[in-house]
Amino acid sequence: MATLSLDEEVRLYTNNAEREKYNLLGTLYGIIVALDYLERAYVRDAITAAQYSPACTRLLSQYMTMLKLVKDSVPSIEQFMTRYRMDNPAALHRIRVGVPATVEHSSEAGPETGKWIAETTQNFITFMDALKLRLRAKDQLHPIMQELVTGYARFKGSKDWEGRSKMVSWLITLNSMKASEEITDEQSRQLMFDVDHAYAEFFRSLSGKEGS
Fold this sequence. Notes:
single chain; about 210 residues; globular
């Protein structure tokens, strides 16, 4: 019977495939920790919004890429964090939202340029067309919604628009789904209603007719 030496290194893997898996899981762990530190630094004003936004976007992108590589080992990010006893609530919230805090919350980026208006208008049209074409899966809708919300949030005063909170809420809903999951026809109808309302509100605000 083999004896176990307390001085012997314990290996988590027995072959190259398992070693690669644990390396990827370790990278995912590191991304979550880094994101948590970034969120806390931003809340404490230790870094500026200009420093925070690109760093957060990069970490979220790395997270999404890594999640695709370990999907067979990570049923959900919540289960992963519980399994490895991770206490990083700030990172978990940012992952669930899927966009930086500067997009989720208020933005005073202004002024509104013609290019921004054209891009945001096109994003609205693209997303509504996707729903009309009966696209329902997360991997079909989430990238378009993310781009729409990011562009929409650049406008000064958008924090006061009713449509913003609804679109962020939908973004969180889509972000929590698996790539192949689909929204229901009822959800699609409500989503179309909310986005169409936000679209109209967007143009009213630009023309100075908000509240008229």
